[in-house]
Every structure is written in C-alpha cells, then in structure tokens.
C-alpha cells in the first residue's frame, strides 16, 4: 500500500515526539552510499566504528562498556520510535529494515525511508511485522559491530527490551486512558514479536494513581561513568541502591 498522507502524519508526529527524529522519503544512490549513512544494504561497519570512536574520544573516562552500550542505543532508538509512532499514531508500518540513518559526530539523528510503501493491520499484526523488521535490522547492526569488536546477543536483548518498554511507558503517558491490561498485553506482544524472553515483563509495573507504566530496566546505560553524570531514575543500580539502603 502507498499513501503520502501516511508518511506526512508519521513525520509530523515523529518531530512532535522529538525534533531529532526527522524523517523523509528519499532513496539512496544505487552505486554508493552517502558518507555517514547506515543502511542495511551497505557495509556500515566503519561508520559505526567511527561513531564508537567519537564516543570514546568524548568520554574517555567512561570505558569500553559504556562506549559500546551507547553506540548500540544510538543505532536502535530511531527504528524503535518509528515503529511505535507508525503503529499507535498512524495505524500502519513502513519497511523498517530499509531505514537509512544519519550519523553525526557522536550521535545518530534523522532518517530516510526508501519508498512510500507501508502495511495496515491490527495492532497484533503490525507488532508481529515490526518485530521481524527490527530483528532483521538489529542482527545487521550486530554483525557489522562484530567485525571489529564482540557484542553479545544477550547483552543487546536486554537493551532491546528496555527500549521497547521505555516506548510503552511514553505511550501510557501520551494516552492515560489506556488500561493496565491493554498496556501489559501490548508489552507481551512486543516481547513475543521480537523474540525476547517473556520473563523481562517483570520489569514493568502499572501505577494505578498516575495511570502510567513504571519501568525498572534490566540493563544499565552506564552513563554514570561519564564525568558529571549520575544514575538514571529507572536504572537497576539505582533501584538496588534504594532498596538496600538502611
């Protein structure tokens, strides 16, 4: 299916969520890829490595675990946000695996989709397709990174699940009328679609007073290792510290 209005809405809502999520329809050149573009049909290992090296240069004190975690998060945030906005705000889904992302110095912001094709369906059908697309894309990221450093699937799975749940928390904040049952059912659908362990659902709780989901992540972004930074409020380290204090 093709409809320019779908993408007009998608790009409008994306920039309302954050101006950094700036999308457009634009095909890549058939014989080469632009510098600092990451796209599944091209070898992006050096572009990703340069992103990692920029993070290393900016935060030398933080260490390799932070540089890798931050690199992975930057690669994945736009596809995940785009999936959520497409499904819950636009009721459709473009081909996420074809996304081309713009890499800037130490950051990833802005993206291109290759065509105006998208699919429609129920939430469950769209989530299932989004899971396939995201896994295809993230396997590509992992393979590109593995060409120059090791990145474990278990490590990325926890980061993936936390990013999905983080978007569900935002969804509950945008739409406080959504019920606890609906939100937790959506979380289960996402875990299944993305081949993520169902036990990770335990990291989500529903606050009946605020009518919002509450997330205690199972992964740590390690930003506290950067000079002047602290633990995030939903960090598992912060939660453990609070629950073991005298």
UniProtKB/TrEMBL annotation:
The entry lists its GO molecular-function terms as: 2 iron, 2 sulfur cluster binding
Q: What residues does the Ferric siderophore reductase C-terminal domain cover? A: 217-237
According to the record, the signal peptide region is none
By what name is this protein known?
A: Siderophore ferric iron reductase
